[in-house]
Design a protein that fits this description.
- This protein has 321 residues and is α/β, with parallel strands linked by helices.
- It folds into two domains: 36-129 and 222-316, 3-Layer(aba) Sandwich (Rossmann fold); 133-219, Threonyl-tRNA Synthetase, Chain A, domain 2 (2-Layer Sandwich).
- Helices cover 34% and strands 19% of the residues.
- The strands form two sheets. Strands 5-6-4-3-2-1-11-12-13 form a nine-stranded mixed β-sheet, sandwiched between helices. Strands 7-8-10-9 form a four-stranded antiparallel β-sheet, with helices on one face.
- Helix 1 (53-64) runs parallel beside helix 10 and helix 5 packs across helix 6.
- The longest helix is centred in the last third of the chain and has 16 residues, at 223-238.
- The chain is globular, with a radius of gyration of 19 Å.
- It starts with 35 loop residues before the first strand and ends in a 13-residue tail after the last helix.
- It binds magnesium ion (MG).
- Magnesium ion binds at residues 41, 43-45, 249-250.
Length: 321
């Protein structure tokens, strides 16, 4: 059974290292700009079945010491991902619900990003790239009534049913049901109806993607679009193009992996690896923070050898406020 993610309301990690400057100020915390950006999927990539969130947060924070910024990208909800972010040394941007939403640290929000912020939660401003969840569920309900589609979404389920389907405990299932702009569903109809459903969604600027257990209805966007948006923000802040790496294991990661300069792929459930086409791809033998860290160090040393070989303590570089 999966364990519950960290309580999002808990204070940011106090276990952190003495080498990090206090949180706050611009996202360009360092006197020098980021040497690379890493966008990483969570389940089956940075997280293995042990679901060790502390190790995941530590692995991401360790890269910061080499000026490599890591951005988590997942089908998980905002509430689920805030739990992981709270374990990091400082708030970072993260991408939730398969790219339908982006959480920006308040310190990173300039006028341009600010225009896209829907609301604030904790120390993040929330950008939604589609209709709010209630409107999305209303749209799906009308479509189902009109076309007699046979599906069963999270909005139709209670917490017990989500627990039974996902293996999550009660708080975990409640976090997974706390959705903002995408709907996981079980399809019970025919393949022909599914194709018709997909076409109807496309006419409403919605899309359907396959996750591990559910189909997900979301705005016509994906992890790659959200990655491009966050990359653009970093590059505007740092004034230069930086190498972009992506890590993932499943079909919903593929566009993100192909759009990166180089990528890590992790084994899918059947043990096979995604074909990332022309994108340089290092296949990692197993998911989890340690294999992730080792493989990223190797990829980074090939990509940005000057910037990842040293580990200058970043407390010597004042925050750029
Ligand atoms: Mg995955």
């Amino acid at each position: 059974m999966n364990t519950t993610l960290h309580d999002p309301t808990q204070r940011r990690g106090s276990s952190g290292s003495a080498t990090l400057p206090p949180p706050g100020g611009s996202i360009v915390w360092l006197a020098q700009p980021a040497s690379a950006l890493v966008f990483t999927d969570l389940d089956g990539t940075l997280l293995d079945d042990s679901y060790d969130l502390d190790a995941a947060a530590r692995a991401m924070d360790d890269l910061l010491r080499s000026r490599v910024m890591t951005i988590a990208v997942s089908s998980k909800t905002l509430r689920e991902m805030r739990g992981l972010d709270a374990l990091r040394e400082r708030p970072a941007p993260f991408i939730f619900e398969n790219g339908a939403g982006i959480a920006w640290p308040d310190s990173m929000i300039d006028d341009e990003i600010g225009e896209r912020i829907h609301h604030h939660v904790g120390d993040h401003g929330i950008e939604l790239n589609g209709p709010p969840y209630a409107a999305l569920c209303n749209t799906l309900a009308r479509l189902r009534a009109r076309q007699r589609y046979d599906f069963h979404g999270f909005n139709d389920m209670d917490t017990d049913e989500v627990m039974a389907l996902t293996g999550l405990d009660q708080p975990g299932a409640e976090n997974a049901r706390d959705r903002m702009c995408s709907e996981p569903l079980l399809w019970r109809g025919s393949d022909e109806d599914l194709e018709s459903f997909r076409n109807d969604l496309a006419e409403m600027q919605l899309t359907l993607i396959a996750g591990g257990r559910f189909l997900h209805v979301l705005p016509a966007t994906d992890k790659a679009d959200a990655m491009a948006s966050v990359t653009q923000a970093y590059e505007q802040l740092s004034g230069q193009r930086v190498p972009v790496l992506a890590c993932g294991d499943s079909e919903n990661d593929l566009a993100m992996l192909k759009q990166a300069d180089a990528c890590l792929t992790f084994p899918q459930q059947d043990g096979s690896y995604l074909d990332t086409g022309d994108t340089a791809n290092l296949q990692v033998p197993a998911a989890g923070a340690e294999p992730w860290r080792i493989a990223l160090q190797k990829l980074l040393s090939d990509l940005v050898p000057c910037n990842t070989s040293h580990t200058s303590p970043i407390e010597e570089r004042p925050a750029n406020e």
